[in-house]
Design brief:
Layout lengths: L2 H19 L3 E6 L4 E6 L6 E6 L3 H6 L7 H18 L5 E3 L8 H11 L5
Parallel strand pairs: 1-4
Antiparallel strand pairs: 1-2, 2-3
């Protein structure tokens, strides 16, 4: 089993548990150069809110690439702002099998500071 398959296996377990809870989920995807965050409704069919390092507002605030902790924190703060505007206050955190470390942790902490509860 390679690294990607292991990550996807861990992600599948998390998503099954979140589906049982029937709550909105904050899904995170990380690449070497960017980080993406989306809040998805309980049925999994609709994205309610999303933010990433590709958005012009976030790119202007960053001084360089989108693949660092500062960029992840900016995305976490932005997704929390958008969620509050949409009336979403609590979510389940879906890290998609990525370790809760570095950029994923920075995004989660910034979203919590922005007012999301998970």
């Amino acid at each position: 089993m390679d690294k990607k398959q292991s990550r996807l296996r861990r992600a599948r377990q998390t998503r099954l548990k979140i589906a049982q809870l029937r709550v909105n989920r904050l899904a995170v995807h990380r690449t070497n150069t960017h980080i993406y965050a989306s809040i998805i409704d309980p049925s999994g069919s609709k994205i309610l809110v999303s933010a990433s390092t590709l958005e012009p507002e976030v790119r202007q605030a960053l001084s360089g690439k989108g693949g660092n902790i500062a960029a992840a924190a900016a995305v976490g703060k932005r997704v929390a702002e958008k969620a509050k505007a949409a009336g979403i206050t609590s979510v389940a955190f879906d890290r998609a099998g990525f370790k809760y470390h570095g950029r994923v942790k920075a995004l989660a902490e910034a979203a919590r500071e922005g007012g999301l509860q998970f």
